[in-house]
Amino acid sequence: MRLAAIDLGSNSIKLVVVEAAGGDSFTELASEREVIRLGQETLLNKHIGDAAIVRAVDCLKRFRSVAERHGAQNITAIATAFLREADNADDFVAQVEEETGLRVEMLAGIEEARLVGLAATHGCAPKGVTTLNVDIGGGSTEISIFSEGEPLKLISIKMGAVGFTDRFIRSDPPAPQELNHLRSEIRVSLRTPASDLREQPWDHATATSGTAVTLGCVLSDTTITLPSLQRLNARLASLTLAERRTVAGLPPQRADIIVAGGFILEEVMNALGIESLRVCDWSLREGVIIDRLRALRSA
Q1: Any residues with CB less than 8 A from the CB of 87 and at least 6 apart, and which?
Q2: What domain range includes position 202?
């Protein structure tokens, strides 16, 4: 059986097409990603703009075509923080379905944390250990703790690289006062979740999605240590946007939001006492696929 999952995130829309092999295993046939920025302004104004909807519809038409060309018999489309925050979420879902034939499901933050954690523990964690995963998206951050494939803690926090860039960063390069306000807000957002998470011990830490993968690429390492991240964040925050776009390993389209994303990861590691974590390239799409395969198997 061939399946496809489309993740409509606050920063980008991502597609994966797979062929199921057996159990939870699968082979990837195609993968696509396009920066659409559905969360830009939406997370501040609580409304998805017309131009963003047009970009999304065009992207989804192309992704559906890619999935069908690879023989996908089932396409699951899910949306995250931007849709949870939008006052025109129902209109967006209806327009997408009318123009693309895809029915978009809005994920609750806790369900997003579960699916991402499922992907991370399945694809990137050592067997038989309890794993904490950090997933920094454009509009929210999900933190999960899994053991033996089952969730022990699931947390969703309203802080993300796109939303916090829009809220706090106005200058180029970012002004010290902007960075102080950004860091202060992250710490406030983490205070209660971090206290809850510290009650549950874990053995291994991972980080998923674009912010973590990008930071790992810039550091040229699949392991991010807290000291190396602190040095990198200080360097990136001192650069202009044009200068950040020339940094090796940093995609130009992510250069404007990487400062906020990097600060979020640094403060999460500080708050939870994480000295190092492994970058994981599996995330929400893979979690949706695993979850779908399990549902089909038990049906």
Answers
A1: 46, 47
A2: 125-280
